[in-house]
Structure formats: structure tokens, C-alpha cells
Amino acid sequence: MNNMNLDINQLLDEHRRYFEKGETKSVSFRLQQLDVLLKAVKRYEKEIQEVLYKDLHKPEFEAYATEIGFLYDSIKYFKKNLMSWAKPRSVKTPIFYPMSKSVIYKEPYGTVLIIGPFNYPFQLVIEPLLGAIAAGNCAVLKPSEYTPNITAVIKKIIAESFDKSYIRVVEGERDVTSALMNAPFDYIFFTGSVGVGKLVMEAAGRNLVPVTLELGGKSPCIVDKSANIDAAAQRIAWGKFLNTGQTCVAPDYILAHKDIKPQFIQALIQQLKQFYGENPQISKDYGRIVSQRHMQRLIGLLDKSKTVYGGEYELESLYMAPAIMDNISWRDKVMEDEIFGPILPILEFEDIEEVIKTVNGRHKPLALYVFAEDRAIWQRVIENTTFGGGCVNDTISHLSSPHLPFGGVGSSGIGSYHGKKSFDTFTHEKSVLIKSTHISLKFLYPPYSQHKLKLLKRFLK
Fold it and tell me: One of 127, 138, 221, 248 is an active-site residue; which one?
């Protein structure tokens, strides 16, 4: 561990020397680096898709939509708007500062650490990197050890494209991650589990390093009796079983109105058959679990007596069929923690106020989804529950808009990113008051008097 600390200290020294040259502060340099990254991703596009299949059995369509095309769209948006984002911004100046100007300057933090997860192992490392580059930072990337093939490609792309003192990849197991997050970076951006997020925040706190934590939790999906059942089944099946359920904003569980629950379950089963056929194991559009450790955890959540569809698994090939569980209560093991896999438990409700109370009585979720044609119902839910972000009559799609910040609240995360919010996250706003020397408010300075106090009160009443 001491050697690792020495290596990290040397690494940070190299990055600080590079940062101090000032080249990353140039907006033209940042735009150029975004172009370099774009060309590199395009050059390796096919290989990225191949290794995503190796690590997660990710279908080509899903790999492009959620990991590659997503980034192309982001880079395009950054390039279009970066010049205006980076400009110093003038704001109002109080009347008691005559002939003065107030300006907010945008400056990078320095060297940021980005720790990525295994579920979207390319996009969830590179997307925050776009924000770091756009804001003018240096960066150290730590991809997940669970996805070694995509990590190797990320390392190759970064090494070929950038000076290692500007952006580099560090590989390793948990001890490496621990050493990195305990180092005095200027900013830490972490995506992963709540448990590890707590450790990151604790370590960052010792160095007073600001953090963004993109975590997770049990994201509810409410299906009201006014919902379009077929549309709800299709969109929920897609959002839940995309990437084999290994999505931080996937619907974790369903709260279905008791009047429509049987109909909804049948529509859901029919939709899964349309998506993946009678045997999802042979479907080219259905992925795999990342590791045996995660498979064992998921197997432990299955209750065969409550599984009404699917749930077959093969440990060796990391396959688990989409599973629907009914007659679930909060006492069931599957409801204890975030599932993060292809198991969908269904609870029922009678009154929407009961649902609101249920959601608010637990940890604040990263996402919430509500399916209802009755506007009063979905408005009541949206306005009276707290969650990171979500959708009405859809799942997951809010992530794809650069105009909607993405992040959690409470135990589901701290801070947000995407679009301009990514730039803001990695930017320090430096407030400056520029005063003229041609006028002086002498009443501000000692010696004080009652007359000066009266003048002060006139300004600050």
C-alpha cells in the first residue's frame, strides 16, 4: 500500500505540473480534446461493441444506444455550447458599490478522479470525462475491475489519445480504488453502490475533496388503474430488463393498483415473450450478469413460490431469465436492497396516498416512474415524493436528454451531471468584485460615527 501511495503521489505531481502549464484553461484546447476523443471512440467503435459483448453479453443495439451513440450526442452538445458556458458571467452589483462590476469566472478544479461502475462500463467513465475535459481539468480514470475487456480498450484509447499527465487510466482491484479515493485529488466523481459511495465520501472528507456520488437504491414504478396497460408493460419491460436489469435507474419494483394488477402481469409476460422469445437464453438481444458473485446474490433473492414467470438460471454462463414475482410484501428478501438484476417484484395498492406514504417512508430513490392517464394522479405523485429524476408514462428515457440534469438525492446520490450540468459539476465558479478607485465610500472605514451608522442603515435597511 505504501508503494501505491508513492505512485499516486507521483501521478498527482505529474498532473499538477501539467495543469499548471495552463493549457487546459484554453477553450480552444478543450474543444480540440473533445474532437480527439470523438475520433478515438469512432476508431474503436467496433472493438468497444465486441468487448461489451465479452464482458456483459451486451447486444450490439444496446451497446451502441446506451454506451456509444449516447456519447456522440453528448460530445456534439458540448462542442456546440462550450464557448458560451466557459465565458465569465457578469451579474448585478449592489447599489452601495458604485462604479463597480461583479463577475463570475469559470475555472477548472485541477485533477479529478473518475471511478466507474461495471454496468455501463464505457459510457459511465467517458460521459463524466467529457465534463471534466470541457471544464478544463486533468483526469484520472478508474474503470471497473469486473469488466476487464472494456477496461483494456478504455486504457488503449486514452493512452493513444492523450498525454498521460493530462488524462490516464489506472487499473486494479479494490485496494487500488481505496488508495485512489484516499488521495488528495481536487474532485472525485464516483458511480457505484451506496456502500462504496459512503466509503468514497468518508475518504474524500478527510482531504476535504468535493464529490459527486451517483449511487442507486430501490426505484419504484407505479402503475395506476388509469394507466395504458399495454404501453406500461412494454416500457417497463424495456427499462427493467435492458442490460439484464443492471441499470441504476431501472424500475426496482412495481406498485400496481389491485384492480389492474392481474391484467398488467399478463401484459408484462406477453411483452417479455415478444422481446426475448420463449427462451431468453438463446435470444441475441438478452445479456448476462457481470460475475458469479453477483449471480449468487441474485439467486438468493429468488423465491420460487412467488415467481410467476421466468427466473431460470445457469450459474456457469451467468444467465438468469427475466423473473416476475407476485404477492410480494416489504418483508420479502427481494425488497431489502436494490435488486440490480432481472428480477421484478410486484406489490399492489388501493389508494395513491398509500403509495406516496410508502415511497416517502423509505430512502429517497434515484428514479421514480408513474404510469397514469389521469393527470391528477401522476401530478400528485410527482409533486409529493422526492427522487433523483424520473418519467411519467415511461422509464429511463429522462437520462438521454442533455437538458435534464441526472443525479440522486439523499442516499441515492449527491450532485448531478449531463449536458451543461456536467460542465458546472467540474467547474469552480470564482466570484470577483471589480471596484473603481475613482470613488470612495469613506463612511465604510473607521473611525465610525453615528452619522456613518445612519448612512449604513439607509443602504442596508
Answer: 248
Which three three-digit cell numbers place residue 57? 453479453
Per-residue model confidence (pLDDT) at position 2? 42
Architecture label for domain 2-215+413-429: 3-Layer(aba) Sandwich (3.40)
pLDDT of residue 253: 98
Which ranges in the chain are annotated with CATH 3.40.309.10? 220-407
Distance, CA of 170 to CA of 177 (rounded, Å):
9
User: Is residue 278 classed exposed, middle or buried when 0-12, 13-18 and 19+ CB atoms within 10 A define those classes?
Assistant: exposed
Range 220-407 has CATH code 3.20.20.80: no
Average pLDDT over residues 402-420: 96
221 carries an active-site annotation: no
Our measurement of the distance from residue 301's CA atom to the centroid of its chain's CA atoms, rounded to an integer in Å, reads 25
CB atoms within 10 A of CB 31: 17
Between CA 164 and CA 162 the distance in angstroms is 6
pLDDT bin (cut points 50, 70, 90) of residue 4 is low
Q: What is the mean pLDDT of residues 111-136?
A: 98
- Helix, strand or coil for residue 342? coil
Look up the pTM and report it. Answer: 0.94
Residue 239, number of CB atoms within 10 A of its CB: 22
Q: Is 220:368 a contact under the CB 8 Å cutoff?
A: yes
> Can you read off the three cell numbers belonging to residue 112?
479529478
Which residues, in sequence order, are bridge partners of residue 113?
A: 140, 188
Catalytic residue among 62, 67, 127, 214: 214
For CATH 3.40.605.10, the residue range(s) in the chain are 2-215+413-429
Are β-strands 313-314 and 319-320 bridged in parallel, bridged antiparallel, or unpaired? antiparallel
Q: Are 67 and 52 in contact (CB under 8 A)?
A: yes
Asked if pLDDT for residue 49 goes beyond 90, the answer is yes
Q: Over 80: is that where the pLDDT of 427 sits?
A: yes
